[in-house]
Design goal:
The structure holds two protein chains of two kinds.
Chain A (H helix, E strand, L loop, with lengths): L2 H6 L13 H4 L2 H31 L16 H7 L2 H33 L5 H13 L2 H11 L6 H8 L15 H29 L3 H9 L4 H30 L2 H6 L11 H11 L3 H9 L2 H17 L4
Helix pairs in contact in A: 3-14, 4-14, 5-9, 5-11, 6-9, 9-11, 11-15, 13-14
Chain B lengths: L7 H15 L1 H6 L9 E8 L4 H18 L2 E8 L4 H11 L5 E4 L14 H11 L4 H7 E2 L4 E2 L2 E7 L2 E4 H6 L9 H15 L3 E2 L6 H13 L16 H17 L11 H7 L5 E3 L3 H9 L1 H6 E4 L10 E10 L7 H13 L1 H7 L5 E2 L8 H6 L16 H4 E2 L9 H8 L2 H11 L4 H21 L4
Parallel strand pairs in B: 1-2, 1-3, 8-9, 11-13
Antiparallel strand pairs in B: 3-11, 4-5, 6-11, 6-12, 7-9, 7-10
Helix pairs in contact in B: 5-14, 8-10, 10-19, 11-12, 18-20, 19-20
Classes of the chains: A mainly alpha, B alpha/beta.
Chain lengths: 316, 447
């Protein structure tokens, strides 16, 4: 019999040999662990290692140019608490984070409720709302830098063209403390709004239609419908959105770094920018790390409380 | 036929051996072709303000030097904002470039850098002494180490609108800071053009305010590195800057980044600003009409002296972990010896720290065909005498670097000028910050 004939013979139907990994794949617990392992590994390497390194650095005397470090306990934390610049940055961080988050939640709720209705061009509005989230944050911030620029501000040009302000009376959005803080909060809200809106829309979609129908049959007014049905039911997911936003606002530095670098005279300086200026630009890595991780215990408590409340209020 | 069939393993063995013989093997087998692997020299630099400089450095200088020294020269250019983060990352990884250019003195990296004393000594034999600014920016008198090497710096002259100053009888611009205040106020009142000295958290502000301080006899430290900020002179300077702001400027100086004064000057809004020759060079390319109106003048005189700062201090370091330390040092010696070419390629942006390298400097800057008029840059012919370093009259050290990087003095002046704090309180707060920073770095034995 030739090789060709041998090769052409149809293969006998035999049961497939068990693969080497079958014992893992066929066990529910193992398979789940294996599939989630890359994500866990990613978080450990990209988030966990730098975080614990920062914690470690904050307890040492390391500088940008040194490889040797000595343990100094809480000395760096005591040192930053003596610094007026740090205390200013701490206060600004709370104003920035809480101010932006309140606005994000209010606006995202309104937007999500509006986008649940049907209207012409809805897909286009959704696309527009999502755009800030798609664009790189640094690029978006640079765009805002031009919009708020002291010479080329398109807002001021428009206001002047409309006769609302004169050429020698332009508002300096990044030059007055309250305007600068409002500007950085505004840009941060612009950036975070899409994410919060999408999360809330997902929450609204998950409310069973029967509840809305029952309320309508009972004659609930739109306001009572919103306050007593929609908002309580969407609260758990709203808390999760708030948590994301809050942690992001407490730790992000791009908007402020690009727009004001902490100015005017440190009135928009926040902990993340101060940590960068002290640790990377100024070379004191240990103190920079102490500034960066200072709020970690508080954020941990906030996260714990938010998640606990969210779980308790879950009704759907 | 079976006996002649080649299985996959045999095929790989045979082709592998063939490849070895024709490739690497040829160098081993034939002694005449054997040679050591070519050396490499990795250089990191900023993206130069003058694109022609990078073109010359990367494509001509690096290539020719590499051919002459049998070295592959690799140049990476990054934005100025990425320099410190990149340096920190290289130190952390103990791997990176052989030659690393900072645009300011990097004293905090001293522990990681090779002592450049031998480079200075070799060049001194050839070119004589470097200018004081060069040594003050790269030497630590406490550890007696040259932590960096500086071949050049960028001057920070006064840019003024000749047409506006001519209207008040001052066509050659102001000579003193008091004239800036009085004449600047008149120009602002008559024409609406304010003076533009930054009061923001950015580097041009940091330089300009120190220039005013030093001219008034106020300093962050003395020649021996002792903190001296809290002085009568500093208080007087704060009061002067507050008055200067109120009489001659607008709130926009609080909003600025490092390029804002360039834009404002070229847009025709300002009567005067302090900057490198980036304003005039940009104007020459973008708007010749405004370029003809913007002229330069030397450092302005204060109550104590006429002094100006460097705007960019080119400081090369060689990491201890660099793979080609000798090559890096040789490159620096050759680059500095032939700095004339760099001076021309950079359109006079970088001035030499070793005056003998550009002996015809006055002739060159007195007749620049791009300038309006051609002798616009002639005022810089004695800049080597009046430019100084951050931290004058002392050395650029780690404490001075952190004070500079965290905008302590910028905030001090801005708070007083805006009325957010009295001059006394602004000084007190800044002094407390500086004391804390100095104490910290002294404890680390870096100051």
């Amino acid at each position: 019999m030739s090789d060709l004939t041998e090769a052409a013979r149809p293969a006998a139907r035999v049961p497939a040999r068990p693969g080497r990994l079958d014992f893992l794949v066929n066990r529910r617990g193992w398979l789940g662990s294996m599939m989630i392992a890359p994500a866990v590994l990613y978080i450990l390497l990209v988030v966990g290692v730098p975080f614990f390194l920062a914690l470690y650095y904050s307890l040492t005397d390391i500088t940008a140019g040194s490889r040797t470090l000595d343990f100094v306990g809480l000395k760096n934390f005591r040192a930053i608490l003596d610094s007026p610049q740090f205390l200013t940055a701490l206060r600004n961080t709370f104003v920035f984070a809480i101010g932006s988050q309140v606005l994000v939640i209010v606006l995202a709720t309104i937007l999500a409720l509006a986008l649940m209705k049907d209207f012409p061009g809805k897909w286009f509005v959704r696309l527009l709302i999502l755009l800030p989230w798609v664009a790189p944050m640094s690029l978006g911030s640079i765009g805002w830098l031009w919009i708020l620029d002291s010479i080329y501000s398109v807002i001021n040009w428009t206001l002047q063209a409309a006769g609302l302000i004169s050429a020698d009376n332009w508002p300096m959005y990044l030059g007055k403390p309250y305007l600068a803080m409002m500007s950085v909060i505004g840009v941060h809200v612009w950036r975070l709004l899409p994410l919060a809106t999408v999360i809330l829309m997902a929450g609204l979609t998950s409310i069973p239609q029967e509840i809305h129908d029952a309320a309508q049959v009972d004659g609930a007014s739109p306001w009572r419908h919103l306050v007593q049905i929609t908002l309580p039911l969407v609260r758990p997911i709203m808390l999760v959105a708030s948590l994301f936003g809050l942690v992001f606002a407490f730790t992000d530095m791009i908007v402020i770094f690009v727009l004001t670098r902490g100015g005017p005279y440190d009135t928009t300086q926040v902990l993340s920018t101060l940590a960068f200026f002290t640790g990377i630009q100024g070379g004191d890595l240990a103190e920079g790390a102490a500034i960066a991780v200072f709020l970690f215990p508080m954020l941990l408590v906030v996260a714990f409380v938010f998640l606990r409340v969210a779980r308790r209020t879950e009704v759907v | 036929m079976d006996g002649q069939r080649v299985n996959r393993r045999q095929f790989i063995k045979a082709t592998g051996a063939g490849a070895l013989a024709t490739g690497i093997g040829a160098n081993i087998i034939v002694p005449g072709r054997a040679r050591a692997a070519k050396k490499t020299l990795k250089i990191l630099q900023w993206v130069h303000f003058v694109p022609a400089y990078d073109e010359w450095f990367n494509k001509k200088l690096a290539k020719e030097w590499g051919e002459k020294n049998d070295t592959e020269v690799i140049v990476d250019n990054i934005g100025i904002a990425g320099i410190n983060p990149r340096a920190t990352a290289e130190v952390s990884a103990q791997k990176g470039h052989d030659l690393f250019l900072f645009n300011w003195p990097p004293p905090t990296f001293e522990e990681q850098t090779v002592d450049m004393k031998d480079v200075y000594q070799e060049l001194e034999k050839k070119l004589g002494k470097p200018i004081d600014l060069c040594v003050k920016s790269t030497y630590n008198p406490k550890t007696k180490k040259y932590f960096a090497f500086s071949p050049s710096f960028t001057p920070d002259p006064v840019n003024y609108r000749q047409d506006l100053f001519s209207q008040v009888g001052m066509p050659n611009g102001p000579k003193t800071w008091d004239e800036v205040r009085t004449v600047g106020a008149k120009i602002k009142k008559d024409t609406g053009h304010p003076v533009g000295i930054g009061l923001a958290n950015e580097i041009d502000t940091a330089m300009a305010l120190r220039t005013i301080m030093y001219a008034h006899g106020a300093h962050e430290q003395d020649a021996n590195g002792n903190l001296t900020l809290n002085s009568k002179q500093t208080l007087e300077t704060i009061k002067f800057v507050t008055a200067l702001f109120k009489e001659t400027m607008t709130d926009e100086v609080f909003t600025w980044d490092a390029s804002s004064n360039n834009r404002a000057m070229i847009a025709g809004k300002l009567s005067l600003a302090l900057n490198a020759i980036s304003i005039t060079r940009t104007a020459e390319k973008q708007d010749p009409a405004i370029s003809a109106k913007i002229q330069l003048t030397k450092a302005l005189k204060g109550p104590v002296r006429a002094i100006g700062l460097e705007h960019v201090m080119d400081c090369y370091v060689v990491w201890k972990f660099a793979e080609n330390i000798e090559g890096a040092k040789k490159f620096l010696v050759d680059y500095t010896t032939n700095f004339h070419e760099a001076f021309v390629a950079g359109e006079f942006y970088d001035f030499p720290c070793w005056p003998k390298t550009v002996p015809d400097i006055t002739k060159l800057i007195s007749n620049d065909p791009k300038a309006h008029p051609p002798d616009k840059y002639k005022v810089l012919d004695d800049v080597l005498n009046w430019a100084t370093n951050v931290g004058y009259p002392g050395y650029a050290n780690a404490a001075i670097d952190e004070i500079y990087s965290t905008w302590v003095l910028n905030v001090m002046f801005a708070k007083a000028a805006s009325g957010a704090a009295s001059p006394e309180d602004a000084l007190k707060e800044a002094d407390a910050q500086c004391r804390r920073i100095f104490a910290k770095w002294k404890e680390k034995k870096m100051v």
